[in-house]
Fold:
Amino acid sequence: MFSRSPSSVRLSTEKNYLLGAAGLLLFYILPYVWLGEGAYITIHDNLDSDFLYLYLLKITRTAFDFNLDTLIPNAMSGGPFTGIPRSAFRTGLNLEVLSFWLLPPYVAQVVNFVAVHIIGFVGMYLLLRKHSLPEPHWAFTRVAIAFLFALVPCYTVHGASVSGQPLLLFAFLNLLTRTSRWTDWLIILLFPFYSFFVWAGLFICVVLGGIGLAGMAIQRTINWPYIIGLALLSVTYLASEWELIYAFIHQTYVSERVAFDYSQLRSMRVLDSLRRSADLFVWPMFNTGAFLTVGILAVAGVGAWRAYGRRNYRAVWWLVGLPIVAGIFCLIHGFYHYLVVWLGNSPLGMKFRVFQFDRFYFLLPTLWFCLFALALRQFGANGRWNRFVLAGQLLLMIVANKEWCINVGKLTGSVTEAQYPSFRAFFAEKQFAQIRQYINRPQADYRVICLGMHPSVAQFNGFYTLDSYQNNYPLPYKYAFRKIIATELAKGTRQMRVYYDAYACRVYLYTAELGMNYLFGKTQNQSVRNLQINTNALKALDGAYVVSAVPIRNSAANHLRLARVFDEPESYWRIWLYRVM
Structure:
C-alpha cells in the first residue's frame, strides 16, 4: 500500500471543505429555486425601483440604445413631458442588463443572485488563500470566512459592486506583489461590466489608488503593472458607463437632484451626524449588505491585544488601522451633507449634490471580512475559539439575511402572502392583464397614477405611469407633479413635505391619510375618506385613470368615477380602478 503524503491529505481535506461550502451555498439558493415566483424578493429600493429599471429597458427595447436623445416614455411622461432620458438608466454595456434582456425577469433575478454570491465566495477564498491565510493549516478558516462573506445580503441589482471586491482586490494585490497571471487582467477588464460606477466603482478606484501608492512607497519602486491595471479599470468604467458620465459632466438635462436640500434631509446637529456614522459603523448600509459588525470588531480588539503581547506590531497596525479606515468611511457619510450645504449653489456644490461622493461605505463589507480574517490569524487555526467565533458570525449572517429567512418561512408555511407578498403576488400579472383588457386601449395612449401601491407594479405590467420612483429625472417634472398633490402635502406631516420638496425621488400620489406607506394589501381594509387632489393638474399630464389599492370614499369630489374593482386570488392587491372625469 502506498501512503499518501501530508500535502495530498491537506489538499483532499481542503477540497472537502470547499465541497461542503458549495453544498451550503446550494442550500442558501434553494428557496429561490424551489418557490419560483412564489418567493419573496426585497421591495424597498429593489422591486420598486432598480429591478424595475432593468426590466423597463427590455420592454421598451432600449437596453442597447446608446443615443443620448432617447427617452423612456413609460414613466413621467404626459402633457408636455415625454419621459426620462435613457442615459439616466443602467448602461447597455452591463452583464446584468444583458441577463434581463435574455431571460424572464424572475429567472434573471435568480441567475444574478446565484452569480453575485458565488463571485463573493470565490473572490474571498482566493484573496485569503493567496494573501491573508495562505498556510495549509488555515484551510478550514479561509473556506469558512469565504462562505460567510458569500452570505452578505447585498442587493443583487448592484451586480458584483460589493461581492466582487475581494476578487478585484486579489487581482490587484497580485499585480502589487508581481505574481500576476493573465486571469488577473481578465478580472480587472470584466469587473466594470458587472458592477456600477455610481454605487461603488469610483470609490473602488480611489481606494485601489491609495493601496498602490502605499505599496510602491514601501517597495520604493514604481510598479508599472499596477498602474496600468488601475488605468485599465478606470478607462473601462468610463467606457462602459460613458452615457451617464457624459450626462453628469455636460448636464444634458437639468436633473431633479440639483434641488436636493441636504439641510432639510439630514440633521445639521453634530451629535446626530456622529450617531448616523456610528450606526453605519456597527450596521452597514442595507443595500451594501447589512450585518452586525460588533462581533468582528471585538475579535479584532482581542487579536490586536494578543499581537501586541507578542510584539507583532505589523499585525497590530492592521487590526487597529482597518477599523479606523472603516470609521473614516462612516464619518464621510455622516458629515457629507455639511460639505454640500457649505458649497451651496456653486458649480462644485452642484456636482457634490447631484453625485453622492460619500459612498465609500460600499467598501465596508469587504473591509470588515478582511479584518475578520486577520483577527482570527492571532488565534489557533483549528482551535475551539476560532470555530466558536465562526459559528457566532454564521448566526449573525443568518439573522442579517431577512429576505432568505422570510423565504424559509414561506417554505415551512409560517409566513403568509399577506405578511410578505411574493414576486408573483406583488407584480400581479394576471390581475393587471384584466385591467388592461377592461380599458381596451393601447397603453401608450393614456396615463395612469397609483394610490396606496408602488407604481413599479403598473410599470412592470406595461402601463405608462405619471408617478414613479426614479433616482434621476428632469427637474421640471417634479414641480408639475407637485401641483397634483399640493393640498395633500399641506395636510400631511412635515416629514412628507420635506421628503418630496427636498428629495422627490419618489414622485408618488401622497395623501395625508395614508402617509408614506405604499404597500396596502387586500387584507388591510384601508380606505381614503378625504382625498384632495388637483384633478385639473392630473388631466394636464394626460392622467386618465387612478389605479388604487384602497377605495376612495369621496371620489366624486375629486372628479373620479369608479370603473371597476379587480380582485384575483394570486394577487397581493385589490384594485379599485377610477376614471378621471
Notes: DSSP finds 26 helices and eight strands in the chain. The radius of gyration is 26 Å. The beta strands are 71-78, 81-85, 447-451, 468-469, 506-507, 543-548, 560-567, 574-580. The chain has a mean pLDDT of 95.
